[in-house]
Every structure is written in structure tokens, then in C-alpha cells.
Design brief:
Keywords: Lyase. This is Enzyme related to lactoylglutathione lyase. The protein is α/β, with parallel strands linked by helices. The protein folds into 2 domains: about 55 residues, Signal recognition particle alu RNA binding heterodimer, srp9/1; about 55 residues, 2,3-Dihydroxybiphenyl 1,2-Dioxygenase, domain 1 (Roll). Helices cover about 20% and strands about 40% of the residues. Strand 3 and strand 4 form a beta hairpin. The radius of gyration is 14 Å and the shape is globular.
Length: about 120
Amino acid sequence: MQLVMVTIDCAEPRELARFWTAALRTEVSQDYNGDFVILAPWGGGSVGLGLQRVPEELVGKNRVHLDMHTDDREGEVDRLVGLGATIVDEQKMPGLSWVVLADPAGNVFCVGQQEQ
């Protein structure tokens, strides 16, 4: 068994795909009538991202979120905010700092950077 995709529930998959394709520098690989949109794996990885239409709104914090790392956390956060993300929080622990962001649909994800 292997992990091949993480799926985010949302109201408008095609709209959210515009944010995530730009954020992850990837493209839509499949679109099932706008109800389920699959993004190609990014960064040479093997895990894709699915965006699935659901009727209910997000209530509270999502139980699963994406964690991404970069060597330029500040630059990536600025880029993502420019794409429509919002900053939720900033956290730090020995050796790692990260920013918690929300995508345009309110789904939380993190961008972290190793610290020396």
C-alpha cells in the first residue's frame, strides 16, 4: 500500500485548484465535471492533491493538513499570501519555525523552515 493522494473537501474545486496549482507550481491532471479535480504530483513527488466538492461548509479546524518545507519561508509565505492565502499563526520550536496559513477556502496548511 502507498499514499498516492491527499484530498481536500471544498465547495468549488475548480476555484480552489487555481490557488493550489499556483501555490504548488503544478497543474490539473484530471477534472471530473468540476466535482473532483486532481492536481499532478509536485516537486518530483509521488503524491497528488485532490479537490472534492462537498455540500457542507468547513466548520472549525481541519483534522489533516499539509506541511511543506522550504529554504525561504518568508519568501514562500509572501508568495502564497499574494495568491490568496491568509496567515493564521506563526510557531517556533528548536530547529524549526513555521507559518500556519489558510487557503482561500479556509483549509489550514503550514510552511516551515529548518533553523540552525
